[in-house]
Amino acid sequence: MPVDKELEIIELRNNTKVTLKQVKDLLGEAVADYLPVFPNTNPFFKLMFKLNKWDGDPTAFVKPVPCAIYIKRYIYGRFDPELLPTLLKQTNPLISGHIRKYKLFQFLNEDGRALLETYVDDAVNVMKDSINWFDFEDKYTKKYNLIVQLRCMEAK
Fold first, then answer.
1. Whole-number average pLDDT of the chain
2. How many CB atoms are located within 10 Å of the residue 108 CB?
3. Which are the contacts of 102, defined by CB distance < 8 A and separation ≥ 6?
4. b/e sequence 88-105, b meaning 16+ C-beta within 10 Å
5. Structural element, H or E, at residue 100
6. What one-character-per-residue DSSP string does 30-74 give?
7. Domain locations in the chain as residue ranges
8. Closest CA relative to residue 6, chosen from 15, 19, 17
9. Distance (Å, rounded) from C-alpha 90 to C-alpha 75?
10. Band (153; pLDDT cuts 50, 70, 90)
11. What is the DSSP letter of 15?
């Protein structure tokens, strides 16, 4: 009897169990139209800039490179662990520097996008209760059981 690889349970190093079907169920059939997940009315980037003590305009389209790293780590990191690598494999050419043609969320279907928006709101709520970025990372990773390497000590 043939085995359906998409239903086979994969146990990851962090003991999370996932199937390829679960990951694929969050992906859309085609690239969705651009509808911002982080509109300027959402305080996500304003709080990120404040907690990191960054100068600059948090509403500018081009953000500091760490923003992309933090979004992948703390927002997409909440999905099944295989989702981010699957999204990163999608055809998405570089336009300029580190700017890609599509945002990762454009590859999600409605269910995936709804989860993403929930994760963004969760991050905003933890940011509001944090005194700096280190405090946010500590609280957020504990609250949502994220396994990431945090800095050994807070930067002064």
1. 80
2. 22
3. 31, 34, 90, 92
4. eeeebeeeeeeebebbbb
5. strand 99-100
6. SPPP---SS-TTS-HHHHHHHHHT--S-TTSSS--HHHHHHIIII
7. 5-143
8. 19
9. 18
10. low
11. S
